[in-house]
Amino acid sequence: MNDLGKLFVISAPSGAGKTSLCNELLKTYGNLEYSISYTTREPRADEVDGKDYFFVSEKVFRKMIENDEFIEWAEVHGNFYGTPKKFIEDKLKSGVNILLDIDPQGARQLRKRLNFGIYVFVIAPSIKELEERLRKRRSESEEKLRLRLENARKEVQFYKDYDYIIINKNFEKAFNELNAIYIAEHLRSKDVKKIEDIVNLEV
Ligand code: 5GP
Question: How many distinct structural domains can be found in the chain?
Answer without folding.
Answer: 1
